[in-house]
Amino acid sequence: LCSLCGKTSSTNWRLNQEHGRICGNCFTKIYGREIKKETLLKYSNGELKCAHCGYDKNINGLELDHIEGGGAKSRKELGSVGGYHYMEKLKKLGFPSGYQVLCSTCNKIKQIEVDPKGF
Length: 119
Known about the structure:
Blueprint: E1 14-16, E2 20-22, H1 24-43, E3 62-66, H2 71-77, H3 83-92, E4 99-103, H4 104-114
Antiparallel strand pairs: 1-2, 3-4
Helix pairs in contact: 1-3
């Protein structure tokens, strides 16, 4: 059994120091949260909060923002659609500059005010 979700079959079992034997799905969720936290901490100078309004209630309300726009182009250049795979690639590149942490509301407002079609 997966110690987190109770799943009885998986083709990708993992051992986790904190949780023991877990399925591949639970491992992916845990790893995704860890890389997101590490990336957002890096781009928010050690404080998980929005660079614009200061929101810090929940990490799930925070997003990585391309300061100068061009997020779609950047993701395409790195061969990633986004999410933790993109953050993983940024880590491998040494967390390059040009990013900031915004809450989802501020990020959406920025997209609308800068370019109504998004960027």
